[in-house]
């Protein structure tokens, strides 16, 4: 892969539709490249002018003295298509298409877009856009874009790369970062992504060794395998990726589809994809910019235990509340640490965490300098938060900031400050301390960096070798329950002992065999046409005798006939015990491939919607961690004297389902295992009902 070198570092750029006016789309790129040190050749193309912005102008692409590496196409309508075709015929390596009116407008625009793409692919040319604000590399000065933000907020090369589908969002993220004094090297917008996607651009800029933080904005993910490759490479060089994926809601997904002309992705599946690949997801560009300084400091905390320090008792309490909101545990300081603090603080100060150094700070500006080194020695502390709700006249704020900076350097651990007064905050910022207006923002960033570090360092699970899966013949889209259970059981998923019966005598014999093993017996009609049997009275629990089993068979057989449903048989099964009903499902997403869903089960599954989505391959530990996010998680460890549930067995079952789903992905569309009965620890987990949908 050339890593899109012809676009990121072209030796020459042609601007088709170039303008003398720097406030027109065809004028901006020439201005920007001149301002920001582009060393290659610039070829304006405009048949009506001999010179544009000090550069010789040419009437056409064919009139150029060489074939440019990159062409920026800023003409509209049919001229865009003609320009793409001419670039392809001349051997241009990359073309950026600014014009809109293509895939985002509907089928006709999409067809036109595909025509351009076919021409480009035939010649090996790469396309960026259409409907894009362009590309900008401030490391090389190659700026094939027109963003007004580059005038409003002067560029500065730096360690951050921004890759976005939306041109507006790429500029906004750039502006927010520059407003915080952070330099930005790459600002690339991919638009409709007829060819090059955010994932491919992310992979390219991840190979820039000077990039220390990669920020993405996406509205759809069309080639997840490339984005996964980018994430894998980024992890290998400890490069954090923080993403905004718009379209979290149904309304947002509709808007995203109309904006880019792409299919929106189901949001929980996107979450699972990001989690699986170590990408941290935030809600908006403001959150991306808020945490940028923390990432650029190189913070990679070993744990999540927080120490809160303030000169206000109330602020200590609020800091502890914010920590709880972010699920950061408060560090338990060693007695030796508390003793050392007591020797330096007033007798009425608090030496336990959170540490209240009190208003004595007004009369003794050295308290921070006294306290911080002692806390830094405590091995229980991973993260530090300093909250200064009030300071100013009479306080030596400069000394506070200087002591905090020295502490951060000595401790080598994350330190965040909350100070809402501008005069106080600016002192800390001047010394390079990550400073925020409130405790929520400060502790939120500490939590993000700690959690993202853990996610990036999480051991990768090797995908097991696929199994040979052969589905039984079936007339319909769905396997019946017996076929589904038998298929899963053959491939490592624990399923209830059962027998599919075709006669009343077979039902009697099955009852005798199952009950002889000490199990109670359940009977269910089996029809691929009736997925919810209990609604029709086609399930019987605690079948008391073989004769009753025979009678129930006849009753169920007649009822299926009455419902004009396929009569596949009647299931006689062991009636399993369990503490709670869970569900495990899987489906083959058209974009991401197999995904697994685990959560609260039973007949209220859809109504309560308490589940998590996981991207295979994953470990049992990952399943257990994900399950702890469910609303029902407090039940897992037992309440009111109950023993803990066998969540380990449920996790192993989910891993087995994932292995089956990946192995059968070309044959199945979905799996629905509900209920999955989970007992107390040591009693295991068992699938008692299943439905397999063919692809």
Account of the protein in words:
The structure is a single chain. The protein folds into five domains: 133 residues, Rossmann fold; 150 residues, Rossmann fold (3-Layer(aba) Sandwich), CATH 3.40.50.261; 158 residues, Succinyl-CoA synthetase domains (Rossmann fold, 3-Layer(aba) Sandwich), CATH 3.40.50; 78 residues, Dna Ligase, domain 1; 115 residues, 2-Layer Sandwich (D-amino Acid Aminotransferase, Chain A, domain 1). It is built from 23 helices and 29 strands. The two termini are 34 Å apart. 37% of the residues lie in helices and 20% in strands. The longest helix is centred in the middle third of the chain and has 19 residues. α15 crosses α16 and α22 crosses α23. By secondary structure, the protein is α/β, with parallel strands linked by helices. The strands form six sheets. A seven-stranded mixed beta sheet has the order 9-8-11-10-12-13-14, with helices on both faces. Strands 24, 25, 26, 27, 28 and 29 form a six-stranded antiparallel beta sheet that branches. A five-stranded parallel beta sheet has the order 2-1-5-6-7, with helices on both faces.
């Amino acid at each position: 892969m050339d890593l899109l070198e012809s676009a990121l570092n072209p030796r020459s750029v042609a601007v088709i539709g170039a303008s003398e006016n720097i406030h027109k789309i065809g004028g901006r790129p020439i201005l920007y490249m001149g301002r920001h040190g582009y060393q290659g050749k610039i070829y304006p193309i405009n048949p009506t002018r001999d010179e544009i912005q000090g550069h010789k102008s040419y009437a056409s692409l064919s009139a150029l003295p060489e074939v440019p590496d990159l062409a920026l196409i800023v003409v509209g309508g049919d001229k865009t298509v003609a320009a793409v075709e001419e670039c392809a015929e001349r051997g241009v390596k990359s073309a950026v298409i600014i014009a809109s009116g293509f895939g985002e407008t509907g089928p006709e625009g999409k067809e036109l877009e595909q025509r351009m793409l076919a021409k480009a692919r035939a010649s090996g040319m790469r396309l960026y856009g259409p409907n894009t604000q362009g590309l900008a590399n401030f490391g090389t000065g190659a700026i094939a874009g027109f963003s007004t933000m580059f005038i409003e907020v002067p560029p500065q090369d730096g360690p951050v790369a921004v890759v976005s589908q939306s041109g507006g969002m790429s500029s906004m993220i750039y502006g927010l970062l520059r407003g915080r004094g952070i330099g930005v090297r790459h600002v690339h917008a991919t638009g409709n992504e007829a060819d090059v996607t955010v994932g491919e651009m992310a992979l390219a800029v991840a190979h820039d060794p000077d990039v220390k933080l990669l920020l993405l904005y996406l509205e759809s993910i069309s080639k997840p395998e490339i984005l996964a490759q980018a994430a894998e490479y980024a992890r290998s060089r400890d490069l954090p990726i923080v993403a905004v994926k718009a379209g979290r809601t149904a309304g947002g997904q509709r808007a995203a589809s109309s904006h880019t002309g792409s299919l929106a992705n189901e949001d929980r599946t996107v979450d699972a994809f990001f989690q699986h690949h170590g990408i941290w997801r935030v809600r908006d560009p403001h959150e991306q910019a808020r945490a940028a300084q923390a990432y650029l400091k190189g913070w990679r905390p070993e744990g999540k235990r927080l120490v809160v320090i303030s000169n206000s008792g109330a602020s200590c309490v609020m800091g502890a509340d914010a920590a709880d909101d972010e699920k950061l545990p408060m560090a338990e300081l060693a007695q030796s640490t508390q003793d050392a603090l007591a020797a330096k603080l007033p007798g009425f100060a608090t030496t336990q965490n959170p540490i209240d150094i009190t208003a004595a700070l007004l009369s003794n500006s050295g308290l921070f300098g006294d306290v911080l080194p002692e806390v830094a020695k405590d091995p229980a502390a991973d993260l530090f938060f300093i909250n200064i709700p009030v300071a100013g006249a009479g306080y030596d704020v400069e000394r506070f900031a200087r002591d905090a900076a020295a502490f951060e350097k000595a401790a080598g651990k994350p330190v965040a400050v909350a100070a809402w007064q501008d005069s106080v905050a600016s002192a800390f910022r001047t010394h390079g301390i990550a400073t925020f207006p409130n405790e929520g923002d400060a502790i939120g960033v500490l939590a993000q960096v700690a959690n993202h570090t853990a996610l990036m360092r999480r051991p990768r699970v090797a995908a097991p070798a696929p199994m040979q899966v052969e589905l039984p013949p079936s007339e319909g889209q769905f396997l019946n329950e017996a076929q589904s259970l038998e298929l899963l059981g053959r491939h490592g998923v624990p399923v209830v002992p059962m027998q599919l019966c075709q006669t009343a005598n077979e039902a009697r014999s099955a009852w005798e065999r199952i009950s002889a093993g000490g199990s109670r017996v359940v009977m269910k009609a089996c029809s691929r046409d009736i997925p919810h049997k209990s609604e029709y009275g086609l399930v019987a629990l605690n079948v008391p005798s073989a004769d009753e089993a025979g009678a129930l068979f006849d009753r169920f057989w007649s009822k299926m006939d009455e419902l004009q449903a396929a009569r596949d048989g009647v299931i006689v099964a062991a009636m399993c015990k369990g503490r709670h009903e869970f569900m495990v499902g899987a489906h083959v997403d058209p974009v991401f491939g197999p995904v697994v869903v685990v959560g609260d089960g039973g007949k209220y599954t859809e109504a309560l919607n308490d589940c998590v989505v996981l991207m295979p391959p994953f470990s049992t530990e990952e399943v257990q961690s994900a399950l702890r996010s469910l609303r029902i998680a407090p039940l897992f460890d037992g309440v009111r004297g109950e023993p803990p549930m066998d969540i380990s067995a449920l996790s192993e079952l989910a891993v087995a389902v994932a292995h089956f789903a990946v192995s059968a992905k070309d044959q199945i569309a979905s799996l629905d295992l509900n209920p999955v009965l989970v007992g107390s620890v040591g009693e295991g987990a068992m699938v008692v009902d299943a439905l397999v949908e063919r692809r």
